[in-house]
Design a protein that fits this description.
By secondary structure, the protein is of the alpha/beta class. About 40% of the residues lie in helices and about 20% in strands. Strands 1, 2, 3, 4, 5, 6, 7, 8, 9 and 10 form a ten-stranded mixed sheet that branches. Helix 6 links the parallel strand 5 and strand 6. Pfam families: TctC.
Length: about 325
């Protein structure tokens, strides 16, 4: 009987079945906890920032945000996993500048940093720094370059193709010098060898060395930003150190979703992230790590990802850099 009645109704009065948007529209994120994929091992700065964000995001969204480490292949395993996940708002990525670097570094990655992700927000920027031992290293960058012109200089980094390594390659090209690169699997072993006198310097992000510079064990020769850092005001910028022709470069960490994620979900996440990194307790912790909180819309993150991918692919190609 119901079927005969429906068939007899005018088309304009028939019920319409509209497709439901990914993420279930206004009900998101009521269905289940959100997976926050961190593509590195626990303990590093990227993992620390993700965990700092998870709690305020949980509060803001009214749903648990669960950090899940998925390391491997220079973060490519985690990146590809999120790129292939359903764009329903329940799988997010704790991304970093390596998202733009890796396609130029590896022969193949299983994702496109622009096409396969919906940028949500850069949460922090992380300056890079060149450090030497305070008790035996160069007194400033000019002295370091003078030494590099007369004798071999070795520099360590947290790995081939890490942002600090790429900045150092640009600095070498700009100064007409060549340093012997010693890649490590992480910043900690590189710092240990620097302190032991095995290396002359280390190019690294500020996070693991800020306290060592402040305590006087290490000396910073330059930071990669356009301005000096509030936590290390005595360390000059690249330009102040006498390096011209190298644009400022900063690492970043932030949140992305799979491409196709509903725009309303992205917008809500963006607001939650921007509010989270402004919480006093989060700001205090980030600044202590040498990370600088950001307040940006998704479009700003998209612009950075595109520009970084082009810039670093050129540096990698010219320097002939390969993965570890």
């Amino acid at each position: 009987m119901r079927r005969r009645v429906l068939l007899g109704l005018p088309a304009a009065l028939l019920p319409i079945a509209l497709p439901r948007a990914h993420g279930q529209g206004p009900s998101w994120p009521a269905a289940r906890p959100i997976r926050f994929i961190v593509p590195v091992t626990p303990g590093g700065s990227q993992d620390i920032v993700a965990r700092l964000l998870a709690r305020p995001l949980t509060d803001a969204l009214g749903q648990s945000v669960l950090v899940e480490n998925m390391p491997g292949a220079g973060s490519n395993i985690g990146y590809e996993f999120v790129a292939r996940s359903r764009p329903d708002g329940y799988t997010l990525l704790a991304g970093s500048d390596s998202l733009s670097i890796n396609p130029g570094l590896y022969a193949r990655v299983g994702y496109d940093p622009v096409a396969d992700f919906a940028p949500v927000a850069r949460a922090v920027r992380v300056p890079q720094i060149l450090v030497v031992r305070a008790d035996g290293g160069a007194r400033d960058f000019a002295a370091f370059i003078a030494a590099a012109r007369s004798q071999p200089v070795s520099f360590g980094s947290a790995g081939n193709g890490m942002l600090a390594h790429l900045v150092a390659e640009q600095v070498q090209a700009a100064t007409g010098t060549r340093w012997t690169h010693v890649p490590y699997r992480g910043g900690a072993p590189a710092m240990n060898d620097l302190l032991a006198g095995v290396l002359q310097c280390v190019a690294i992000n500020v996070t693991p060395v800020a306290d060592l510079v402040r305590s006087g064990r290490l000396r910073g020769l330059f930071v990669s930003t356009a301005e000096r850092l509030a936590i290390l005001p005595e360390v000059p910028t690249l330009l102040e150190a006498g390096v011209t022709g190298v644009p400022p470069a900063v690492g970043w960490q932030g949140v992305l979703a799979p491409a196709g994620t509903d725009a309303t979900i992205v917008a809500r996440l963006n607001v939650a992230i921007r509010e989270s990194v402004q919480r006093p307790e989060v700001v205090e912790r980030l600044l202590a790590l040498g990370a600088q909180p950001l307040d940006e819309p998704p479009e700003a993150m998209a612009t950075v990802i595109r520009a970084d991918a082009e810039r670093w692919a050129g540096v990698i190609r010219r320097a002939g850099i390969r993965p570890d």
